[in-house]
Amino acid sequence: VKYVFGPVLSRRLGISLGLDLIPFKTCTLDCIYCECGRTTKKTTERKPYIKASHILDEVKQVLVKAEKLDYITLGGSGEPTLNSEIGTLINEIKKISDIPVAVLTNGTLLHLKEVRKDLQHADLVIPSLDAVSPEVFKKIDRPAKGLDPGTIIDGLIQFRKEYKGKIWLEVFFVKGVNDSDEAVDGLIKTIRTIRPDKVQLNTIDRPPAEPTAMSEDIEGLRLIYERFRDNDIHAEIIKPFEIKDAPALADQKDVKRSVISLIKRRPETIRHISLFLGLQVPFVNKILRELEQEKKIKRIILKGETFYKA
Ligand code: SF4
Hints:
With 310 residues, the protein is α/β, with parallel strands linked by helices. 35% of the residues lie in helices and 19% in strands. The chain contains 10 helices and 12 strands. Helix 1 packs parallel to helix 2 and helix 9 packs across helix 10. Iron/sulfur cluster binds next to loops.
């Protein structure tokens, strides 16, 4: 399978089957914190980058074998709403399964009526919004030409009015870039008008596209969280995983494939790989050493921690 990955254990979505709707790093943004690296194709052009029917064929194959799934998640290493067949894909998945469908989007195309319509039948949409001022937006998200925060915010407000499912809005903080009092106040004011069901406050915990991008420290995130809470916004901090007994999710017949499929999209530590796939750490260690010898993966060091990337 090419477009389906997992199931993996996701911090926010439990056991999730991921679908890639666009070629690697095709995106409307080039966020400095992106865990998948620099955007190689920055565009706002919607088209059937990957046909919905091809993805659906793979989903059918995988669903036959999959045991318990909490979500089927449309995302991947780029912006999924760029795929103009996303609406067809959601509708077709809903015909063959009862598993809730989630969409991870950067929200930049929600000002388009057809995109809002395409997402109508998803159960959960997780859009992101990192800045409300054009200067900060440009600095953190490095948008494609023609995108500005005003239009994106209008799109989010309109989407909230039309969409019946749940919206969890994600804000990604980079230290010294979008965490000033002014930037946070602007976000709070705007998010109160968007009215998502919940706001998720996140920061860097894997090697970012720009090595100079720094993660927000936990104390900084806690203060931001308190300001959201004091303004009656239901917010939460996305914490790193601390799960003791992860379910066995790796394909036991082909563990190497499961590991590569996981770290192809973004770098992970041994501990995370073991958690996401439900494998023992020493076993993951052995697999990673073999893959390194086969030159299929490489190491990246961030803040003294070792990450692996295919
Ligand atoms: S973080 Fe998401 S929106 Fe930003 S560049 Fe990466 S894939 Fe695109």
